[in-house]
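Incident log, support desk, overnight shift.

02:14 A customer reports that sequence design results differ from what the structure should imply. Their input is reproduced verbatim below. On-call engineer (initials T.W.) acknowledged and began investigating.
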């Protein structure tokens, strides 16, 4: 009986070993397919040239950004599928604090895009004549411009919602907890 039990355990161990190996191989193949189809979830830095380091209002962004410690300006177009997906995560609610959304219409008007995703608030801008993107030199979307200490710090692509959340200012990413002394006893 003991010998039979040892044989069964050994057979199960071999089966588990083979299945784990197959699972590892499967994930490697998925990684290769994503790489081949250019579906990798990684951001690309964007060279801002002379715009880097200036106050945001000089390129047509709101003056409130000139006083922001940490902020993010998300540029979306009305024809980009990734832009639609990013906008859907904010649908019907207020834009997250310290985030501004600039909608750049590729065709028709941006008002339809704003209405479709119910983007509301004073931090939603429509760049109908592409004045802001031309001053910055942007020719693609979705892009996040990060503002630090009232200056344009850097820009990056935003390929997924996960990367959008990762780019959010720290205040928006983490819930602040009250200090221990402020808690009632």
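02:41 Re-run completed on a clean worker. Output:
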């Amino acid at each position: 009986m003991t010998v039979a039990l040892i044989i069964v355990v050994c057979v199960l161990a071999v089966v588990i070993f083979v299945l784990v190996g197959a699972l590892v191989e499967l994930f490697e193949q998925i990684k290769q397919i994503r790489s081949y189809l250019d579906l990798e979830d990684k951001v690309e830095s964007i060279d801002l040239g002379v715009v880097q380091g200036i106050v945001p209002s000089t390129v047509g962004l709101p003056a409130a950004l000139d006083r922001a410690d940490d902020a993010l300006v998300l540029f979306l177009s009305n024809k980009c599928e990734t832009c639609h997906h990013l906008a859907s995560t904010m649908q019907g609610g207020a834009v997250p604090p310290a985030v501004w959304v600039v909608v750049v219409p590729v065709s028709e008007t941006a008002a339809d895009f704003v209405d479709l995703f119910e983007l509301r608030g004073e931090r939603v801008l429509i760049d109908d004549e592409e004045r802001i993107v031309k001053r910055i030199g942007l020719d693609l979307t979705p892009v996040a411009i990060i503002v630090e200490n009232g200056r344009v710090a850097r820009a990056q692509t935003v390929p997924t919602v996960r990367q959008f959340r990762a780019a959010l200012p720290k205040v928006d990413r983490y819930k602040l907890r009250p200090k221990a002394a402020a808690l009632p006893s």
